């Protein structure tokens, strides 16, 4: 068999060249965080002169080392254009010596018993030893025409095919669009980059209405897609109504829906539509500050009928570009930039992520009687989402893909999640293999501010998933991360800047309103990304955005309580140490504290410097405990490893509950017991504060008289006696030896405990 080799004007070296600067340090390449993976790329462009008559359905087969790939239907059947790229792993190409590319015809059969056999039109073979190696940033290899031989024509030559064949790595521009030999066929298995839609806050100020039919309880309903907001109810007076209310909705570019303003009248529980007006979003003014936008009158007509007049509505419409439309929690956000691009600050650095691979993943489905996982990764930072290719039937997938983001704020978080792909079974007839919701495998969060500039962090992160039965370890994810700053001064300057754009402070929104808008923004982003090709599944997007993190969880409540206890533990330790000093548990320490107290009282200007020096030395001492790698999700901190089954079942129970009534009743009773404890603590705190207020409120005349007399006596003593003497006497009195102490409570505490509170007035 004759072997045809392509013309190779320049044969590049197989290994990626490593260049060095004058200082001997290695220059960074575009894919230096991941291991280099070599592929054999075959780009099939088109074919010509395939015979007369023209083949009915020509296609191309590519075969190397027993692996076969096949082009889909031609994009342009008349000119036989495919424009597809295939990538075979180097380990596959190493076991073969030739690459075979052949063109076939699959004519439509008129026989009802079966299809017609495929017709071989010709082929071409390449010697793998003669195929060039391309190294980016070199220009793409130009495709060339190759003669097809071995066909069924009398001359043995049946046309030409345009191909480009080369060896490359995952840094090649054709890599994202290529079909891989280690993945399943289909667009849902390829690596892709997605961009979140540009979100705006649409502020609709409903001012007033005129000439509306008379009615009671009239309100205006604003609807944009699935979002519905209403003003308060008002009553017609002299033919006009007034509201002056702001309704804030979320809109995404490109604008597809229209804003529907509907006037409704309520009579009891019944409602009727008085009129409606549709406003195109493309004609609404945009602003980047708090300036006043001109209002306008809109004619209200009957719903669904044009040309009718039911009154007019006075509104003010504008897109607020000075806000950051949050689709993530603030403490987990990856971006704080406002919508308007002219308000963006320059980037402070670059974040590079290398997704190396997974290890020991648990099987998520069953194939041919054995466990299997078709894993892929999704990473999000800012408005950019990336998705790796799907590694089919592998519990130890290897991706080795690298991505880059611009960093505008160092106090942001990168999120990486692993999912099991079910979209590859979209066309399978078996019900158990049809498309199911994307199975979560785990999530990793990396805070950019925890990364040192220029340092590469290669770590293995545990993948943990909280399920109703309990915490499950799903495997590990190997990542390489590097943050490169542009200027250290710019990074330090970002720390003193406001976290959110100025509009969040000049015209703030309430917490409840922000949470509602965040949930709406997350749903809009999920809808838009699910319409991409290939789609990024809705459940995957919501899982990345933590859309369900606001649900009630007694586990998280306990975890937050222990976090508060951990924050306050240093203060508790200081109080315990002070009590030990007062009790002279260590006489040397007590004597040293006496000396320092006298020194600070005599030289009060040393108090503040001493405090700052203590904090400085404390931070310096803790430097040796600095984390050497980015922190991971802590199962112990979140109490996920000790959560009980009933607590997790309640956490995963949707709203409204789908559990039996007796289970819901038991949970409610348990919540009442917990709330009773909280109620008692709040009552005690209120009582202590009310006792302090009672000192000057004359609720107990004797106690107030005693307190005022002591205040007058203290004022006289402090006026006559130097303050330093009083301070030294107070310190020595508080730190006196236990042999001079009375075991009974101090008179001041006894006096405060006897003061009245308002607890006796509470029913």
From TrEMBL:
* UniProt GO cellular component terms: membrane
- The residue ranges crossing the membrane are 592-617, 706-735
Tell me the membrane topology, using the record's own terms.
Multi-pass membrane protein
Taken from the record, one Pfam family name reads PRT_C
Q: Which CDD domains match?
A: C2D_MCTP_PRT_plant
Q: Where in the cell is it found?
A: Membrane
Q: List, alphabetically, the InterPro entries matched.
A: C2_dom, C2_domain_sf, C2D_MCTP_PRT_plant, MCTP_C, QUIRKY-like
Output the PROSITE patterns linked to this UniProt entry. C2
Q: Where is the C2 domain?
A: 21-146, 332-461
Q: Keywords of this protein's UniProt record, alphabetized?
A: Membrane, Repeat, Transmembrane, Transmembrane helix
Top-level taxonomic group: Eukaryota
Similarity remark: Belongs to the MCTP family.
Q: What is this protein called?
A: C2 domain-containing protein
For this protein's source organism, the top of the classification is: Eukaryota, Viridiplantae, Streptophyta, Embryophyta, Tracheophyta
């Amino acid at each position: 068999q004759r072997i045809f080799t392509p013309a190779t004007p320049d044969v590049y070296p197989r290994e990626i060249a490593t260049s060095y600067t004058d200082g001997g340090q290695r220059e960074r390449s575009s894919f230096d965080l991941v291991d280099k993976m070599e592929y054999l790329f075959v780009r099939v462009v088109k074919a010509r002169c395939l015979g007369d008559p023209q083949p009915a359905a020509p296609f191309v087969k590519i075969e190397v080392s027993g692996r076969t790939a096949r082009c889909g239907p031609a994009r342009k059947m008349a000119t036989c254009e495919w424009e597809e790229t295939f990538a075979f792993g180097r380990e596959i190409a190493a076991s073969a010596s030739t690459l075979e590319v052949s063109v076939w015809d699959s004519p439509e059969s008129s026989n009802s018993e079966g299809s017609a056999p495929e017709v071989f039109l010709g082929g071409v073979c390449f010697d793998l030893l003669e195929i060039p190696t391309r190294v980016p940033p070199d220009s793409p290899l130009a495709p060339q025409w190759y003669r097809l031989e071995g066909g069924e024509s009398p001359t043995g030559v049946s046309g030409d095919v345009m191909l480009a064949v080369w060896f490359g790595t995952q840094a090649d521009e054709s890599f994202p669009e290529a079909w891989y030999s280690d993945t399943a066929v289909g667009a849902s298995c390829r690596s892709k980059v997605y961009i979140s839609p540009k979100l705006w806050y649409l502020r609709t100020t409903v001012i007033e209405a005129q000439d509306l039919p008379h009615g009671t309880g009239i309100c205006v309903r604003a609807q944009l897609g699935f979002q519905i907001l209403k003003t308060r109810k008002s009553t017609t007076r002299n033919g006009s109504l007034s509201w002056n209310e702001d309704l804030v909705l979320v809109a995404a570019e490109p604008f597809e829906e229209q804003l529907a303003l509907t006037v409704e009248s309520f009579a009891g529980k019944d409602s009727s539509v008085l009129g409606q007006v549709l406003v195109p979003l493309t004609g609404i003014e945009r602003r980047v500050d708090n300036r006043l936008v001109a209002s306008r009158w809109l004619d209200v007509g009957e719903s669904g009928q044009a040309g009718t007049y039911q009154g007019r509505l006075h509104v003010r419409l504008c897109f607020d570009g000075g806000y950051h439309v949050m689709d993530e929690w603030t403490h987990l956000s990856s971006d704080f930039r406002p919508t308007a691009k002219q308000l963006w600050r320059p980037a402070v650095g670059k974040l590079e992520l290398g997704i190396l691979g997974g290890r020991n993943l648990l099987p998520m489905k069953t194939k041919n009687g054995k466990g299997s996982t078709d894993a892929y990764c999704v990473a999000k930072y800012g408005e950019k989402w990336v998705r790796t290719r799907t590694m089919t039937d592998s519990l130890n997938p290897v991706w080795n893909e690298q991505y880059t983001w611009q960093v505008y704020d160092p106090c942001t978080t990168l999120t990486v999640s692993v999912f099991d792909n079910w979209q590859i079974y979209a066309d399978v007839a078996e019900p158990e293999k049809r498309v199911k919701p994307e199975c979560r495998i785990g999530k990793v969060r990396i805070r950019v501010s925890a990364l040192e500039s220029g340092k590469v962090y290669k770590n293995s992160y545990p993948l943990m998933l909280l399920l109703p039965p309990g915490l499950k370890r799903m495997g590990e994810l190997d990542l390489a991360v590097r943050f490169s700053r542009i200027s250290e001064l710019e990074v330090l300057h970002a720390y003193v800047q406001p976290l959110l754009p100025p509009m969040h402070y000049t015209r703030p929104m309430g917490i409840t309103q922000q949470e509602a808008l965040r949930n709406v923004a997350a749903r809009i982003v999920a809808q838009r990304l699910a319409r991409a090709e290939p789609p990024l599944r809705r459940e995957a997007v919501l899982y990345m955005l933590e859309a369900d993190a606001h649900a009630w969880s007694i586990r998280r409540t306990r975890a937050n309580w222990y976090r508060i206890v951990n924050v306050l533990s240093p203060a508790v330790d200081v109080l315990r140490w002070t009590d030990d000093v007062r009790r002279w548990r260590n006489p040397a320490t007590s004597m040293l504290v006496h000396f320092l107290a006298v020194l600070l009282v005599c030289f009060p200007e040393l108090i503040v410097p001493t405090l700052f020096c203590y904090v400085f030395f404390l931070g310096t001492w803790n430097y040796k405990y600095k984390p050497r790698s980015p922190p991971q999700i802590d199962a112990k901190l979140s109490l996920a490893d000790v959560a009980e089954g009933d607590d997790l079942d309640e956490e995963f129970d949707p709203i409204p509950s789908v559990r039996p009534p007796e289970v819901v009743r038991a949970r409610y009773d348990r919540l009442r017991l917990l709330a009773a404890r909280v109620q008692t603590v709040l009552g005690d705190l209120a009582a202590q504060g009310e006792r302090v207020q009672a000192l000057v409120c004359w609720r107990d005349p004797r106690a107030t008289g005693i307190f005022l007399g002591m205040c007058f006596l203290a004022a006289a003593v402090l006026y006559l006696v130097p303050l330093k003497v009083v301070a030294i006497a107070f310190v020595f009195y508080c730190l006196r030896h236990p042999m001079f102490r009375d075991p009974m409570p101090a008179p001041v505490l006894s006096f405060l405990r006897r003061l009245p509170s308002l607890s006796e007035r509470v029913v």
